[in-house]
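Lay summary. Proteins are chains of building blocks that fold into shapes, and those shapes determine what they do. In this project we predict the shape from the chain. Here is one chain we studied, written as its sequence of building blocks.
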Amino acid sequence: MTDTTNGGTYDKEPVSINPAGTKITIRANFTSNPATWTARILGPTGLNSSPLSFSVVAPVSAAPVVSTVTHSVLTAATTAQTITLDGTDFRSGAVVEVTNLTTGAKANASILTAMSTQITASYAFNAVSIWGIRVINPDGTSSQSYDIQVNAPAATVLPVTPIAVSPGSVSAPGEILADTTASLSWNSVASATYYAVAVRDLNSGELVTDTTLAGTSYDLNLIAGKQYRWNVAACNSAGCSAYASPLYFKTPGIIVTIPAVPTGTSPGTTYTPGPTMSGNSVTLSWNASSGATQYGLGVRDMTTNTLVVSTTVTGTSYTANLIAGKQYRWNVAACNSAGCSNYTTPLYFQTPTSVLTVNGIASSYSTTTTPYQPTINLSGSGFYSITQINWNCTMPNGTNCTGSPYIWTSANWNGKFSRISDSSGSVSPTLLAGGDPAGTYNWSVTFSGGGQSVIKSFTVTKN
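And here is the predicted shape, written in a compact code that computers can read:
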């Protein structure tokens, strides 16, 4: 074996020779240095093979990996700050490269301590930016870039209060602008990094602007004919100054005021239960309120205490389609761009109860199995008025069925009576219990409510 790159010839005894004499195995240490080698076989009779060349390459080192960079909060400074890099495959002599990702400037940090899995370094991060940190081993292998944020130094003193310059005057109602566009401006404060601006609509009392910005002016579009007040504060990382003395101004146009409470509301009385209407479609009406552009209307179901109508209309009437046999309360308020009046005093009324009719129960049923609990679909009218259902049963021998009569009320429907609408629903009675004997059972069911009742009779035959 001859190292033709670095020099040196080495004789190696075979570890093994295969029986055919076509393969020789040897062991050799080629070190970690790259080199070109030749090998030839020296025969025992003095006959030698031709040399065969091959290359030995340097071993490949694993690239370093940075898993975390820990540090106290980094702020831009000209003095060095310490960072700790944790990872793997940091080699002796590795460097820590820092890159300002805004400018692209690179530099090496000073190594304080170094191990294969942790390096502590220091560097003066002198600019607000995202900085990339990576480890470069002596063989040139490099870790990925680990990015950290360097912030601006925190301010320690609140800025002084700015002066609101224009528009407006220090007392209400203030100047009238040329149009509905307001250009607010104030003086610059040296230590401020941004400003907080607030504009309040004095008609409604609401803040129409509550924002922050870096400049010393702000434009906004407002509503014609309204009065406003605005002020501004200067802020930095330490906080905000007091707000400047407010300035008042108005936008041109007629100043809108909240309209008066509507009058002439009908139908209904101010006490319960109120009059009964002629039908379930009820037209609510009131007198126009000067300056109103719309009206807010509410109708409440007094049984469920839910709003069944909550809407706005531009006219002075509204027709509500309601449920038969129920009690309601309603009121209305007048509104415009300035806001809404108080609601009128509530008025109470009732819708008429529908005539109770029940269809869908057959005259006879039959079954071969027990228990027998069919679902019977019903149609008719006045279902919303039903408050009680009584079931009566006699057995084939003429005696009452066990437990008869069976009384259902709204407190114990438990799904046995399903009321889909005022004209449809279903019942699920147990007409035969398990073990009931064969024969014909006579049934009657009474639907009651709203001072009305309907009786249906039928038979059930167990074959």
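What the prediction tells us: The first strand starts at residue 2 and ends at 3.
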